[in-house]
Amino acid sequence: MKFDTPATTNPIDRLKVVGRPTSRIDGPLKTTGTAPYAYERHDVVANQAYGYAVGSTIAKGRIASMDVKAAEAAPGVLAVVTAGNAGPLAKADRNIATLLGGPQIEHYHQAIALVVAESFEQARAAAALIRVDYTRADGAFDLERAREGVTGPSKDDPDSTLGDFAGAFAAAPIQLDATYRTPDQSHAMMEPHATIAAWRGDQLTVWTSNQMIDWATTDLAKTLGIPKEKVHVVSPFVGGGFGGKLFLRADTLLAALGARATGRPVKVALPRPLIMNNTTHRPATIQRIRIGATPDGRITAIGHESWSGNLPDGKPENAVDQTRLLYAAPNRLTGTRLAVLDLPEGNAMRAPGEAPGLMALEIAMDEMAEKLGLDPVEFRIRNDTQVDPEKPDRPFSQRQLVECLRLGAERFGWSRRSAQPARNRDGRWLVGTGVAAAFRNNLLTPSAARVRLDKHGMVAVETDMTDIGTGSYTILAQTAAEMMGVGLDKVVVRLGDSKFPVSAGSGGQWGANNSTAGVYAACVKLREAVAQKLGFNSADAVFSDGVVRSGNRSAPLAQAAGDPGLAAEDAIEYGDLGKRYQQSTFGAHFVEVGVDAATAEIRVRRMLAVCAAGRILNPLSARSQVIGAMTMGVGAALMEELAVDTRAGFFVNHDLAGYEVPVHADIPHQEVIFLDETDPISSPMKAKGVGELGLCGVGAAIANAIHNATGARVRDYPITLDKLLDRMPEVG
Amino acid sequence: MQNPGDLELTRRGVLMGSAAAVALTTGPFTEPAHAAAKRQEPILSTVSFTVNGKPRRLELDTRTTLLDALRDHLHVTGPKKGCDHGQCGACTVLVAGRRINACLTLAVMHEGDSVTTIEGLGLPDGLHPMQAAFVKHDGYQCGYCTPGQICSAVAVLDEIKAGIPSHASTDLTTPPQATAAELRERMSGNICRCGAYSNIVDAITEVAGRQA
Ligand code: FES
Ligand code: FES
């Protein structure tokens, strides 16, 4: 189904199932520990052996020699796989560094071997017997230092400009020129990257944990040099990804190689201490923001440049993207500056670009509001735009940023805030509130599904879409139930299998809208098949309560299926509505913090998010997406930082003890409000995404609240108490 | 608690075994590989405990954690492995009613113990009230931390009932209550990267209220 004109009324608009708060259909499995994750698939293949991955202990250089004899001779060991004996391997386009290193080493903890043994304990013990001599090469690991050599854009990412930024900024009566820093961050999803691989002849099956089934299938085939049809990828449950499982990673390749070497199914989970340097991370940024405005608070010039580093051929962290679209201004300059760093591969983590970008931009807006003597909510409202500022003939399909800010301010009690910092005291706590805008684009990508109807009236949905905690199972079931006019109990959903039609997959908050639209398309086809089978006119057939009605005739849905059943497959494909309209999601975050007057300990006391993100398909799980993102935002603001050893070139705190993420005690009760919105330009579902929107801006809202509480402006994340202590107000 | 006399393995044997391992991995490599390998031959031991009420007897490499004994040997895969280092709480199970990180304890240390995993609390056709409350409040997303969260939550309410204080307790003489602050403090060993905390506390609070 080609979607090239805005949606009109369709069966989804009945909202009998879609749009209602619905408990997850996979909830009973997840809460009883019976949902099967990759490493625990004892049910799929017998005689599994255990693989233990070994990582490089240098960041750059070569393996001079590697002695695996002791490991090979250790009890229970079946094979030791290295680049030397694995056979030729290609590198897939979506991987920047090779997944099995050697002799060349591209980053610390790059996998260099897999030990396969009868037991986990044996594989782990044997892995410790491998002796490696390296020849180290010099590398660049320090972004601050590398930044000095990078003054302009790379040829792949030219600057975007409008008007005369330099002139307008110089002429602006009120100016801000400030630099902000965000650190490297780790996805730290709770389920380690894990795979079981088994070969049958030349046919490979992997049970894995991956957000993008078709990418994994394509890239595994390419890496191994085998046809894609020979690779079967299965990933029905994914224990979190946040972008860290978008790509084929070492667990999958190593399991496949280990299984090929031993002739046994092999399972591999990346050990937690290996994950943060072995896999991808969100790159650190240094962002310079310049804003010029008139005294009445109109922005006349806005400039945003962001430095980040990556391995050769890596991409920049696109932290300036939102600045092209968020606020009006006639003179603009945005651009990325990319340095080569030999740290592990930088890549997408939840809301790549916008998450770090808004951490900086939305502090800058707060600073500017302060300079202007304007309320920060009002300052943002004054610079709203309903069109793409760079291309004014391109309107936003929907843009309710102002409404989010106004409603949030009212619900949060914003008017009680003191504009003067450090004025609000609650016992030992200095209390402050902060606001930030949330912004994230709505991405359109084709998504296919198959829908089957059987003689009992059961509807089965099959698509390679994944549920990484996002609630895909449930919203796809809701979509099919609405379209076919049945209850949720009559729908089963099967996901995460490369034998199913290729979906949008999970990433970039594009999953919900695109994958439900794909199921919508397949259901439209199935409805036609049903109508035809019953001899009804499909244009006026009404599907509801398990019955199909047309004129004064009606028949049970199940009857149309008959013994052989009916099936239909289709995909949603998009025309140019994404070009003609700017499609984005909007929100406003409000945060109250307390900062201990003596110790500068920071506690988040209240959080509110107001979101405008099209139709909310399942308010229960959508709210969870937003509170989960807000929680990640607390981590980004206050604690998360991969500490770089700039001499040895690795992330030092590479486990869950050293890399701190928020825990229960860090998170207060969180409020979320969804504006009642539908966006007929986005898809027949009229929905957009929220999973990343919820993270965008949170960090800055917290930083701004800390400033309001203490008067101290910290531009260097995470905001830990040591950065505040010597700038705290005198304790009265 | 297990009776040390029940173990077929002596303490001396364990020490000798581990001393050999240390010498091998840190010392200069002088012996031929096969001799080294011989020293690494796994030391096996049998252990018996009940899992979700069922008696189980296993012969295990003594290095096997309780978590791996459950997941890999007994195929009881409800307890999850998030870190294997006591950092995340995904592996939380109840041993004699008290919560522990199953990755931080060796299986052979649990002779005679009774182990309850998430499956022992309830299965899809008969959810424990805590499991049902997690579903109702959407106290999870990816589900990977969830078995640990729920086992912890059940134990937390028992700890509060038993009057065991926490860092969040205002004083040591009045019995602790299931307040949000108490729950957040006591649940903080269970990381949820999906960030379901606010909903998890709502779920536990509802169950605590019903019990009270
Ligand atoms: S797996 Fe045991 S605490 Fe993380
Ligand atoms: S539900 Fe995913 S980590 Fe808690």
TrEMBL record, chain A:
Residues 32-138 form the Aldehyde oxidase/xanthine dehydrogenase a/b hammerhead domain. It holds the Pfam family MoCoBD_1. SUPFAM superfamilies: CO dehydrogenase molybdoprotein N-domain-like (SSF54665), Molybdenum cofactor-binding domain (SSF56003). GO terms for molecular function: iron ion binding; oxidoreductase activity. Coiled coil: none annotated. Gene3D superfamilies: Aldehyde oxidase/xanthine dehydrogenase, a/b hammerhead, Aldehyde oxidase/xanthine dehydrogenase, molybdopterin binding domain. This is Xanthine dehydrogenase family protein molybdopterin-binding subunit.
From TrEMBL, chain B:
GO terms for cellular component: periplasmic space. NCBIfam families: PRK11433.1. This is Aldehyde oxidoreductase iron-sulfur-binding subunit PaoA. The keyword Membrane does not apply. Keywords: 2Fe-2S, Iron, Iron-sulfur, Metal-binding, Oxidoreductase, Periplasm, Signal. Oxidizes aldehydes to the corresponding carboxylic acids with a preference for aromatic aldehydes. It might play a role in the detoxification of aldehydes to avoid cell damage. Heterotrimer composed of PaoA, PaoB and PaoC. Residues 45-121 form the 2Fe-2S ferredoxin-type domain. PROSITE patterns: 2FE2S_FER_1 (PS00197), 2FE2S_FER_2 (PS51085), TAT (PS51318). It is found in: Periplasm.
